[in-house]
Write a structure and sequence with these properties.
The chain has 5 helices and 2 strands, in the order E-E-H-H-H-H-H. 25% of the residues are buried.
Length: 108
Amino acid sequence: MKNYCNFTDSGMEDKANGSVDTKSPVENGQLPDPANWGVADVVNYFKATGFEEQATAFQDQEIDGKSLLLMTRNDVLTGLSIKLGPALKIYEYHVKQLQTQHLKSNAS
């Protein structure tokens, strides 16, 4: 499983719950291609980006990286049964960005 947290000068991030996370490998300044992520990777990505509570919805719906890249705005807003505010942020700032990154990396 990959960890997607930013790291401090020491290369590790202290979480509020006392755990310490290290940053995942980054390819060319970007996350690894989400198309290769399993369900656990998707869940860990959303937990690491501050959506701990909402990450379980991706687990419950068995959303892996390929499924994540196929999701529409409507899928995120209505198909995951999460509150509207977090759902909008998840789609706009994460799902859409990951989809764009994937398309750009596969276009070259």
